[in-house]
Amino acid sequence: MSNKKIKNPLWDNELNIEKRLDFLINSLTLDEKISCMSNANPDIDRLGIRAFNIGGEGAHGVQARHDQGWDLREPDFTTIFPNPIGMSRSWDEDMLKKSGEVVGIETRGLFAAGKSGSLSVWAPTVDMERDPRWGRNEEAYGEDPYLTGSLAGAYVEGMQGDDNFYLRCAATLKHFYANNVEEDRTFTSSSIDPRNKYEYYHEPFRRIIKEHGAEAMMTAYNEINGVPCMVMRDIKDYAKDRWGLHHVVTDGGDVLQTVNQHEYFGTDAQTVAAGIKAGIDSFSDNREKMEDAVREAYALGLIEMKDIDEAVRNRFGTMIRLGLFDAYGDNPYSQITIEDVGTKKNQETALKMGQESVVLLENKDGLLPIDKRDAIGNIGVIGPLADVWQLDWYSGLPPYYVTGLDGIKKYTDTSFEKGLCRFKIKADGKYLGLDKEDRLVIVDEKNAEIFEVEQWDKKQFTLKSCSKGKFLSVRDDINGGESGDICACKERAFGWFVKEAFKISESDGELSKKEAEETKVSQNENGQIIFNSSVSCGVTSWNDETLYIDENGKLCVESALQKTEKCDYGNNDEIVEESMSQKMSANEENRNEIDKSVKISHFEFELVSDGIEKAVKLAKKVKYPILFLGGDPMITCKEDVDREDIDFPAYQQELLEAVYEANQNVIIVLISNVAFDISWAKEHIKSILLSASGCMELGTAIADNIFGKVSPAGRLSTTWYKELAKLPPKEDYDIIAHPRTYAYYDDEVLYPFGYGKTYSEVRYLDMTAEIKDYTKIAVTVEVENTGKYVTDEVVQIYVTKKGSAVKRAIRELKAFERVKELASGERRTVRLEIKIGDLKYYDVADERFILEDGEYEIQAGSSSRDIYLKKSVNIKGTARSSRDAWQTIKANHYDKYENIYLYEGINGFDAVCTLDNKTDGEISYRNVCVKKACSFKPEKYSLEILASIEDDGVVEAFANDEKIGCFVKGQTKTTDIHSEIGTAAFRTDKKMPWAAFGRKTDFKKYDIELDGNKIPDGEFELKLKMRGYIRVCSFKMI
Inter-axis angle of helices 305-321 and 17-27, to 10 degrees? Predict the structure, then answer.
């Protein structure tokens, strides 16, 4: 990219970056600037600018598969680490930095070889994993903002390098913010109050940008309180102006979605204008459409030249720091080449990270580690996950990978049983087989194919052809030329749409009496069908399509029998399907085709090989059965797909219990990126190891832990709950009022945050805690390894505020260290530091962070619920202020609430909204002061509320639960005000709160006359009860 012949100031390394950017902005034409607003930057030859791209994936290694429609070519093999949730279980900042360094080096190496057009990497994901059902929990670093900030921050430092100016690559944090529900994510709104916002959802982004120097950030798809993330003020107000972020991009296709899904604006021009003003520098949408939209926005006066200049300036500032305009060779990372990709050293780093990310959940009776001498002839490997390496959506392809079975075989010879049952299948009484093109067709019994069934949850399962060794997959891209058939053609279940996953459904028809007698339906105690014996059920495709038998005896999906039209929306294709009746009336030929096709009412699975029986047989033969179980990163859950529950797969539970019955020394290796309810296993199984998927050295890392080459010391970075019934809906983002995460949830859990055992015993002997320089607390913890194995130990420091004026966390992680290689009998003093500024909380009365006066208990332990040592310190801080009711009080700054949510208000306010017109909503404000704050005695007291109240709406005011005033729509004084709220077209029929459908509803100032005799002289709790369709932005006394 460097060109010493170019002498213009953009390329002059001796000039400071601002002067170089000044030259660029003054030299570019309007059209050239507009051409730089999408992620694909064009050549600008006269300035020596060569085309470059923004964006690429590097969640746990560089994703260079090149298997998507816009990038189809041979893959580049890269070094692949455990999924981020796995890396976070290491609790090792040093290893995270080394892993990030590998990603940065390999990104730069591929770029230097012309194999990648981007040095901007869309990683790491730092969304808070507040709920175990979120589909993308594998991608982030746990439920705690401090842990995420520290570990993901270290990853960022490794990616970007240690140079004071140049970047090895540009890390881009995802997704700003409160992005934890996949269902309807392209238009759903997250209701976020100020405390949750500032203390929890903002915090990892703030910490990584300010303390670790993250270069860029990506906005989320969802809305925050009714405002799409790509146009919210927090981008500029916080990420850029307060935290110092350089560059912001939107998520893919978000401009289109803001118009068509959020329906927040009516045009692309309005959307990009709002995005640019909010702080967006690059739009991840179709380039031509973005250029047209920016040009239109400028022509309409929605944006000015200075707005465009700022975005272009931020974009090219990052490119200068990446060394793209380095004429004199000062960039220290320009020496990296393709030879630095996939090196032995990089792969050793992946192995080390894999080893450290393993968590020992159980080890009763010291069953592990297994002595290698005792392993000979005594190991049997069992389980559906033993012989596979799972590819996830954001993973690259490694040059090799090691399965669990491969890893065990490095230590000893072993027998293996997969433990899955095999079946012949009938569709409405007709056997299924494969034709010469491996398509699923009707055959006679002699030619029936045998399929291996793997069941992943209550509904989803895969079918693998035993003769071909391939998974059945639905080929239903009709517009892409596929015919809607089902073919045994896939090596693994993989794709944005996982078409290898079939679903159990209710049968449409009834079995004959004979069939019912011959087909025994196997169900667990919850009535769930389990493929451990012959069963009968309905089956649909991955997207719930009905299956048919066409006139040629071929199985196909319903969409194959329907006409489809393709509408091109840039990079997004939408398929618009006509209904069957429309199709039939429009085309007689297709009517005949459908009439000749037969809808399949039920499927019968005839057991031909009992996998559980074979597993039990092997378990009885050996001393140590090692059982590999878990989830699949493409089926269990993924981007765009949340989980419905945390239940352990029912078939795997049956397999586990059968193997345990045969041999109680069974060792479970759980390959999982998500938390499961494994209560039965916790109670019965002696040893359980947990590993995330993804690491190219997965099997080696696991085997090294099993046989004691390393001692497991990983720790959970999320809480493993026992049951979902005590958790609020996953759409509820308030972790404080509706407790979630270790910080607020105090009920019984399966495994707590920070939990993990070691092979040795580590005692916590003593600790000190002392305030230093009024800015930090110096903590020392003395630990001793009293066991016989060398081990790491993760020392965790939590803080509890005693006697807080508000509800605060039970405890919060404020420091930690992975203590390395603690020898048997060794004592070591661990020194840690807590920043006093990290002990502040956001106070809704003061509308700022405050450091509370009083006692803080410093706690040392091995998990959030295993605390061994405590010391208290007293900090001189401040007390929360009174709320002066004569000053405007923001409605969303409540202390307590019931039955409300937050949505977009007017004039910069968020509005507190009732759920509907039937459920009473309630908001409370403590420490309110009226009479004490007033220097004179008013003749009467009125509460002025800025609100939208529809007919029959009622607002009642209470002081310490005594009613002091009431407003009824139409009976109380109102004042019209001028306000602007949204520019959206009217929302269509989506699953949205009622406030989404009335963005232009008038807000007014309503006066509620209060009974002055009932208003307390001092501070009191003001409560507003609301009934009807009501939105309140603010209030004050007048």
Answer: 130
Within 13 Å and on the Cβ side, how many CA atoms surround 239? 32
Q: Which of 250, 13, 54, 310 is nearest to 170 (CA)?
A: 54
Radius of gyration of the chain (CA): 31
Residue 432 in tokens: 């299924």
d(CA 962, CA 940): 18
459 Cβ neighbours under 8 A, 6+ residues apart = 503, 504, 505
What the block records as the tokens of 624 is 């140590």
List pLDDT tens digits, range 479-509: 888 999 999 999 999 999 999 999 999 765 4
| Cα dihedral 110, 116, 118, 123 sign | negative
**Cα 446 to Cα 426, 536, 600, distances in angstroms:** 13, 21, 21
Determine the pLDDT at residue 476: 93
Contact 1020, 955 (CB under 8 A): no
794/713 Cα distance (integer angstroms): 7
Q: State how far the alpha carbon of 760 is from the alpha carbons of 710, 818, 853, in Å.
A: 11, 15, 40
pTM to 2 decimals? 0.94
Kindly indicate the confidence band of residue 85, based on its pLDDT and cuts at 50, 70 and 90.
very high
- Residue 935's pLDDT is 72
Whole-angstrom distance, CA of residue 511 vs CA of residue 518: 10
Which residues, listed in sequence order, are joined to residue 861 by a DSSP beta bridge? 796, 867
pLDDT tens digits, 240-291: 999 999 999 999 999 999 999 999 999 999 999 999 999 999 999 999 999 9
Tell me how far apart the alpha carbons of residues 1025 and 1038 are, in angstroms, rounded to a whole number.
20
**Is 251 in contact with 218 (CB distance < 8 Å)?**
yes
Q: Which residues of 424-456 are buried (b: 16+ CB within 10 A; e: fewer)?
A: bbbbbebbbbbbeebbbbbbeeeebbbbbbbbb
DSSP state string for 957-992: EEETTEEEEEEETTSS-EEE-------PPPP-S-S-
Q: What is the pLDDT of residues 936-981, one digit of tens each?
A: 777 889 999 999 998 889 999 999 999 999 988 765 556 655 444 4
Exposure of 54 in the CB half-sphere (CA atoms within 13 A): 33
- How high is the pLDDT of residue 585? 41
Whether 326 contacts 17, CB under 8 Å: no
Given a cut of 80, whether residue 306 has pLDDT beyond it is yes
Strand, helix or coil for residue 54: coil
**Cis status of the peptide bond prior to 177, with omega within 30 of 0:** yes
Tell me the average pLDDT of the chain. Answer: 92
